[in-house]
């Protein structure tokens, strides 16, 4: 009997210990740590790039963190110059980064030490990497946190599936050259392979015309890996005796004449009406004092030098229209050599229409089409296989329409914009939050074959300018399969973008992102098409 009692007592103690151990292990497994990732670009010229976020809830026994163990799961770690961990702390309505620890000795696995007391509720930490200047823009990185060492124990971290983050360049950032803001990207690749980006240089604030705004340009002669310093190529100065903030010029569109490599940039020049928005202040007429002007510049030496402004307003604007301007974004050269810029005008009733302007004599004279659809603006144009032109337009109805019919308006012309018909993909296929978008058609090498593809970029949302994405159509823009959608930046920005073919395997994009005013990134065409190597 005594022996049986001892055995039973031993069994109960052992069972209790086992249960306690299992409970401890269960607590460790269920320790409230959430690891997640935000899809944003890693900017090569930025010191802090968030690649991972960790949310840690304080418990009765966990008060301090001593170390994080990090792993670089993808990407060339030799191109990483520094890894840092910050704790996000509230400051007013925003947050500030408090350094937990850092390492400049980079390896595939690293332990970042520090000592940070946890506060009540959730505690957010971010993992940041800083890249070397020569890091390829085609590199991608994936960083994970495997364990966190607390004052009492080390806990394994689990969380969402992590994606590859792409490298980019903050081509223009707030404060560069003492400029307040950079907006409205245009992007082309010249016949010589030079990449040229243009944009608004908004000197005083981010507001639209009217203000002190010029057109800036950057060139890259090595496929987008490095860029020359900004050069201002359109500046109307103090024309007519009025100051610079009453002679702004903006909203550029750019094209390359493929027959002779002449590069054209179109922009809108606003004269007078201080403190007012040009969209509403421009009136009927043809002179600068009456109405805003459609102005061109050109370069005949691959973008190194540029002409004086060429004003073509009287060639193409109807006197009764309130306003006429370009794209913005880019234009095209048709197979027969015709130069085409997308354009937009406000008629005598103040209703906006998208259209095109075109030149058959290499830019000496220009002709304008009719309105493709009412209440549309900011269009882009491509030439389809049958020689017709497709105009892809921002449809202002979408500001209220969030139904299945939300989407870019699309129209076709067979007679250079004299008449238009609605395309089958109009309103309902390419969703938008009402924002400028980009559309290009180019040949690419996909595996062993050359394919002609249409690419589209915009904020892929009906409600917000977020989720900057590239979509691909392989059937001349007849359809846009969802599996050919690539997300670049899920956070909010101003949302304008412009695409270019860098070479037969690579696409470049310049866009207004969440991490910089002008973000440049490169993506391979095989990645956009989900081709498995």
In summary, what is this structure?
The protein is mainly beta. It is 8% helix and 45% strand. The chain contains four helices and 36 strands.
Provide structural commentary.
By secondary structure, this protein is mainly beta. Among the domains are: 32-163, Immunoglobulin-like (Sandwich); 169-330, Neuraminidase (6 Propeller). The chain has 4 helices and 36 strands. The protein has helices at 2-29, 278-281, 313-316, 525-528; strands spanning 33-36, 42-43, 50-57, 64-74, 80-91, 94-103, 109-117, 122-131, 140-150, 154-156, 165-172, 181-189, 195-202, 213-220, 231-234, 249-257, 262-269, 293-299, 310-311, 323-326, 329-330, 332-333, 339-346, 352-359, 367-368, 376-383, 389-395, 409-413, 421-422, 438-446, 449-459, 468-473, 485-489, 497-503, 506-511, 518-524. β26 (376-383) and β27 (389-395) form a beta hairpin. The radius of gyration is 28 Å and the shape is globular. Mean pLDDT is 93; it is low at 1-30.
Key attributes of the depicted protein:
mainly beta; 9-stranded mixed beta sheet; Neuraminidase; 5-stranded antiparallel beta sheet; Immunoglobulin-like
